[in-house]
Amino acid sequence: MHRRLLRSLLFIAALFAASASLADSTHHSLWLLHGKTNNVYLLGSVHFLSPAEQLPEAIDAAYKDAEAILMEIDMDDLDPLQAQQVVMELGMLPPGQTLDQVVGETVYGELSDQAKKLGLDESLLRRLRPWFAGLTLAQLNLRAMGLDPDSGVEKRLTARAVKDHKPIEGLETLEEQLGLLANLPPKQEKELVTYMLADAEHISDEVGSLLTAWRAGDAAALEKLLKKDLDEHPDLIQPLTTDRNRKWVPKIEQLLNGPKDYLVVVGALHLVGKNSVIDLLQRDGHKVEQL
Q1: What DSSP line would sit under 185-203, residue for residue?
Q2: Percent of the chain with pLDDT over 70
Q3: pLDDT digits (tens, 9 = 90+) for 148-179
Q4: What HEC string does 97-158 produce?
Q5: How many C-beta atoms lie closer than 10 Å to residue 80's C-beta?
C-alpha cells in the first residue's frame, strides 16, 4: 500500500508485494512462542505478492508443524456471496449520495484521475464510500504492478490447509474487519483517502522498501515505518493496529494452554514495535523467539 496508509491497513488490502525469493534471509518475519505442551508460531504476512514469489523454508516448516491455523479472518469458511454483501453494505454510499459530494470536488478529481489510469469506471467510483474508493484504487495499483492477492501469504496457506484438512480459525470476522474502516469518523475517513492519494506516486518505491524489510525479517526497519505513521496520524492508525493487537493477544494466549501446535498469521506490522502482538505477549511474561 502507499507509504503511510498502505503500510498500516494490514488486514484488508495491499500491504506489501514482491517478486524475489525469500529463501536467503537470515531471519524471517516469523516468531516462536512456547506453550505448556505446544508451539505457537507467529507469522507476519503480506497480503499481495507476485506469483513468482517463493516463501522461505522456515514458513513451510512452521506450517507443517502446525495442526491448526489462526488468521485475521477465517479464510476457508468465507462465503463469497456473503462477503460481497458485507462489502456492498459497508462500502457503498446510500442512494442519492455521491462520492464527490462527500469528499469535495478537489479530492474527487484526484480520485477520478487515478480511477481512469487504472481502468475503474467512474460511474462505479461515484457510488463508493471514501474508504472503499481509496482501498479499491490501492488494490488496483498493486495489481498494475503485477501483484496478486491470490498469491499472498494467507491465500497460499489457506489453499494448503484446505487440501491438508487443517482447520482455520479467525481472530475477527469480515464484518468486524471492514467495520473498522466503515465506522471511521468522517474526518479520519477523508484523511485516509487524501494520504493514499498523496503517496500514490511513490507506491513502487514504498512497497519495495517494505518488502525488503519483510524478506529480511528486519523488525527494526518495519517498526520504524509503522512508528512514523503512528506518530503522525495516531487517531487514524491506532484503531487499525494497536487496538486490534490488544484484542488479539488474549485469544493467542489461550492457544498456549491447548494440545495443538498453531500457526498464527497476521499482517507483518502487527508483530513489530511498541504495543505489537509480540510486545504485548512479552509484557505478559511470554518468551518469543524470532526464527
Answers
A1: -HHHHHHHHHHHHHHGGGH
A2: 91
A3: 888 999 999 999 999 999 999 999 999 999 99
A4: CCHHHHHCHHHHHHHHHHHHHHCCCHHHHCCECHHHHHHHHHHHHHHHCCCEHHHCHHHHHH
A5: 7
d(C-alpha 291, C-alpha 278), whole Å: 13
Q: Which three cell numbers stand for residue 17?
A: 508485494
User: For residues 55 and 250, is the Cβ–Cβ distance under 8 A?
Assistant: no
Contacts of residue 95, defined as CB under 8 A and 6 or more positions apart, other chains included, come to none
Spatial contact of 272 and 10, defined as CB atoms under 8 Å apart = no
The answer to whether the CB of 69 falls within 8 A of the CB of 260 is no
Residue 1 has pLDDT above 60, yes or no: no
Q: Which cell is 205 given?
A: 518505491
pLDDT tens digits, 231-256: 777 887 888 899 999 999 999 999 99
pTM, to two decimals: 0.87
CA angle 179, 48, 194 (to 5 degrees): 55
Residue 103, all three cell numbers = 469528499
Q: Which residues pair with 93 in a beta bridge?
A: none
Query: What pLDDT does 118 receive?
Result: 92
Domain boundaries, the chain: 5-290
H or E segment to which residue 43 belongs? strand 39-45
